[in-house]
Write a structure and sequence with these properties.
This protein has one domain. It is about 70% helix and about 0% strand. It contains 9 helices and no strands. Helix 1 packs antiparallel against helix 3 and helix 7 packs antiparallel against helix 8. The longest helix is centred in the last third of the chain and has 26 residues. The two termini are about 30 Å apart.
Length: about 220
């Protein structure tokens, strides 16, 4: 009899890809990259291959593991990074087409693009309220990041975009922490990183759902 196929946990890969790419872009959004003389196009490679391709693969593996939320979130943000990389690539002509319409049209177009991700991220945030503290904070700060970047693009206020960059850096650190908490444990290290659960206990579940029955060992 063949043994059922076992999959590893794809979440640390997806979280790490998201964190590193977000951190790199946020350094530029926050104005730090410009001070160091680094052009923002350096993010394009990460957007396509790490934040994009690797996160998409993590999302597909989450589907195989039966995790619909993880699959939808990772695959969606993979699409975001690939789209952002396409916007930054000169040979795609997206920025040139927007620039031809004028700076105001460019700002509004980018604002509309980011507004969609504000809405999408808020939906993901609502789906984390009973998961764990790390995931809940991740999507809360990510939504704030998108709100600030959207407002900064729409109003052409550089300091608002820079604030979004700093929130983005903090969001990336949270994603890295969650990834580390799933990679590092007593099975392979001398310590484990806590990530408190937000799921209600059995008594609270029974009150919320009278048909709920505890399993043996709960």
């Amino acid at each position: 009899m063949s043994q059922p196929r076992k999959f590893g946990n794809p979440a640390p890969l997806g979280l790490s890809a998201f964190a590193l790419t977000t951190f790199a872009l946020s350094l530029h959004n926050g104005g730090i990259g410009q001070k160091l003389g680094s052009p923002p196009n350096v993010v394009v490679g990460l957007a396509f291959f790490y934040g994009g391709l690797c996160q998409l693969l993590a999302g597909m593996w989450e589907f195989a593991c039966g995790n619909t939320f993880g699959a939808t979130a990772f695959s969606s943000y993979a699409g975001f990074w690939m789209a952002w990389g396409a916007i930054l690539r000169p040979d795609y002509g997206i920025l040139d087409a927007l620039s031809a319409a004028g700076p105001t049209a460019t700002n509004h177009a980018l604002g509309i693009f980011l507004l969609g991700w504000v809405i999408m991220t808020f939906i993901f945030f609502l789906a984390t309220l009973r998961t764990n503290l790390g995931m809940c904070l991740l999507f809360a700060f990510l939504d704030i990041t998108f709100i600030l970047l959207c407002a900064g693009a729409w109003t052409a206020k550089v300091h608002v975009t820079q604030a979004g960059g700093y929130f983005g850096m903090f969001t990336a650190l949270i994603a890295w922490y969650i990834a580390a908490s799933e990679l590092i444990g007593h099975h392979n290290s001398y310590f484990a990183l806590p990530n408190p659960s937000l799921a209600p206990n059995n008594a609270q579940r029974a009150i919320a759902n009278p048909d709920y029955k505890t399993e043996e060992g709960d």
